[in-house]
UniProtKB/TrEMBL annotation:
<dbReference type="InterPro" id="IPR052931">
    <property type="entry name" value="Prophage_regulatory_activator"/>
</dbReference>
<protein>
    <submittedName>
        <fullName>AlpA family phage regulatory protein</fullName>
    </submittedName>
</protein>
<dbReference type="Pfam" id="PF05930">
    <property type="entry name" value="Phage_AlpA"/>
</dbReference>
<dbReference type="InterPro" id="IPR010260">
    <property type="entry name" value="AlpA"/>
</dbReference>
Amino acid sequence: MNSDLDRFLREAEVLELTSLARSTLWREIKAKRFPKPVPITPGRVGWRASEVARWQKCPTTWKPQEAA
């Protein structure tokens, strides 16, 4: 298995890791202060574990990474 692959987190995992309430999570996403979820399949989204970890390092100054 490739160690460069990123794991996708479900909403419940993100809420547990961050201690945010569900409404707060979505409010922060809308305000661009938390990583956006990635569409995985129709009706299913996930968050990249690396992006959530980056947010956790400094939540007050986190900014989305520029697209390469």
